[in-house]
Amino acid sequence: MEENVTKRRREVLPAVALRETVMFPTTTMHFDCSMERSIQAVYEASEQDGLIYLVALRDLDEEAPLAERLYEVGVVAKIKQVVKLKGGLIRVAAQGQYRAKTLEVLQESPCLQVVCAEHPHEEWSDEKENYSEALMRTLRETLEEYCFLAPQLPQDLVINALVDEDPQTVGEYIAQNVPFDPAEKQKLLEESDLKKRTKELLRLLSHEVEVLRLEKEISDRVKERLDQNQKEYCLREQLKIIHQELGDDMDEEEEEDKYQKMLDELELPDEVRKKFQDEINKLKRTPYGSQEGLVSVNYLELALSLPWNKESEDKLDVNAAQTLLDREHYGMKKVKERILESLSVRKLAPGIKGQILCLVGPPGVGKTSVAKSIAEAMGRTYVRMSLGGVRDEAEIRGHRKTYIGAMPGRIISAIKQAGVNNPLILLDEVDKLCSDVKGDPSSALLEVLDSEQNFSFRDHYLEVPFDLSKVVFLATANDAGMIPGPLYDRMEVINLPSYTREEKFHIAKEHLVPKQLKRHGLNKSTARIADDALYETIDGYTREAGVRTLERQISSICRKCAKEIVSGEKKSCRVSGKNLKDFLGPRKFKDDSLDRKHLVGVVNGLAWTSVGGEILQVEVAAVDGSGKLELTGSLGKVMQESAKAAITYVRSVCEQYHIDKDFYKTKDIHIHFPEGAVPKDGPSAGVTITTAIVSALTGMEVRSDIAMTGEVTLRGRVLPIGGLREKTMAAYRHHMKTVLIPQENEPDLYEVDDVVKENIRFVPVSHVSQVLREALIEVQPKKDARKAKAGEAPALNTSSASEKTPIPQQPIEKPSTGGNANEL
């Protein structure tokens, strides 16, 4: 038996390195393991005799070797229980056996394994009689005092420590349960002399008692001071009441006197002055520091700081304003014209009320930036108010001040921010207002944007009318169709179309390039971007209505130039169309992705999007079947109805185009719009779908250089559409030669850019038959085709329906005046 014990006192054991934790031999401890090597050590010990070596880490730095980070003295413990937790963790309960010393670290992986030897304590020896008894009694008394100051300590700790007579057990039990610093606990574990360890434990426990005593003293002082403040508050209120009863005036200037002085200095309507005076009188009657008093103070601070009588002086120099607008923005003739007209009218009639303008256009065309220039040109203070995602009516009108945390609405807050009562307020993204159970903010804007009502705008928080008639409101939107009708009716809408290629070039050269060069610490001598590089960037690296992506691409070029200059590769950068790909990579967009061949059943349609116009090809296939109609390409309800109307029209004229009159029974027609992941809707694809169906059923090819747009009716009439300028710009960008438009849209050609009108032939049509005559190519007879191969001229005009499919002359009906101008 003695040999077995001696053999086990020096042995090889799996080990666990404890973090911020120290175990003592006579105690039981629970700890969690998350590291793989620690978990492996626990399982390996459990499979043997349950003994495991627990030693603390002296350094938590993961980069240092594990053997150098372990303390020399640890504890050999016996595993009592292992519980698996979520996340791959395990919880271990271990009972200490004896103190041991690390002799050698054998391995660190897959688990920590060490050679350890028992490290027993030295026997207790008294220098004086009864010294050990006095020392233990002092330790127990200090522990009792600690328990009194730290009531969260478990009661069994006190009981076990007071009952047990073994100095080692008592000391280790206290050290294990009192939250000493881990380094101090390790010192206690390493101390072999029990008497010295007990003295050190007594010192540490006495220090903890002193700290807890000071904490209690500080807490008592704080509580006493709070009680004193409450007492002073009560006395102050009593003194205030006594002065009121005696009619004495207090020498100290009170807060309400400050508000009274501010009110006297303002020129206000009687209704407003009475409201503010009542609020000041209410504040005087309210107890100091009460919640009601705080509400009144916040209200008066806001109400009396508003610019009731302060306004800025307008700049009415039309020539100076035009110079400023031309310098800051290229193009935008309509906007500039409208602002100069407004300044001219204001100079002749200074009393005119504020106008409400709404700039509608795709993202990136400069709506927000032009608003700043307009404010500068007019000499107005500029305030921007973003309305995107606003869904609470109180955001506009404010909350009633009786609510906790109430505040004024955005309109009054913008007036306070401006500091004058006639600023220019930009209502940004007005088309993105939302509505829910909390109200409709767009309805709250009706009063704000009505020049006949906003002279007495009432904010819920302010509760008195404020004159907004001097304010110039400027709104921006991407899609006018998303603006509610009553709100749209109160604004003068100015459409900002997408930029043309030439406009983008001038904006980049005159504004974006200088701006980005300055931002990146470059100048014209260190970096130069040639004109052909700008054209190539516009054509090959951007597809947008505005210039935001273009500016990002220019910024990317400037960053790469800065890197080459700083790294010493070059002293200056010269960017041209030839070396542009070295800065921006391969070209992202081809010149033209459309098929240039004349095809059957494929027609180029024109679509309007929020970022400009696009070419939208329609593909139709007619195959033998049972008369099914298949519509694919994420089509909306309106577009599906247009396809059904086109089918019905083709059925009504099938004999004229030599189409089998039973095709709707014997043919399955599949209508597909490419880019199926993109939702599409609107009625303007009607003529495009009709042309594609007739082409697929007759076998006639469709000209690839022609594009068309227009709504079709059951009788073949072509109705007007919207977004003509953007659509024609897309046709110009894709090198279309002819564009078919509804005849009623002919006046809208005035809005089309001159460069587009110079390069495209526009054909106004009122009936589908005109569209088919322009778009379809008559089929050449087979015998003529053989002649053509032989070099003979083909006969294009034959009378046999079996040899060719002629395009009949359809009488043109007078189109209706109605139409949907807001299509997607």
Keywords:
29 helices, disordered N terminus, 5-stranded mixed beta barrel, alpha/beta, 42% helix
Average pLDDT number: 82
Strand content: 15-25%
- How many angstroms separate the termini? 95 Å
Low-confidence stretches: 1-7, 249-253, 780-805, 809-824
Number of strands: 27
Radius of gyration: 44 Å
Query: The biggest beta sheet, please?
Result: 7 strands, mixed
Share in helix? 40-55%
How does this structure look, described?
Helices cover 42% and strands 18% of the residues. By secondary structure, the chain is of the alpha/beta class. A seven-stranded mixed beta sheet has the order 19-20-18-17-22-25-26. Strands 1-3-4-5-6 form a five-stranded mixed β-barrel. Strands 8-9-12-7-13 form a five-stranded parallel beta sheet, with helices on both faces. Residues 1-7, 249-253, 780-805 and 809-824 have low confidence and may be disordered.
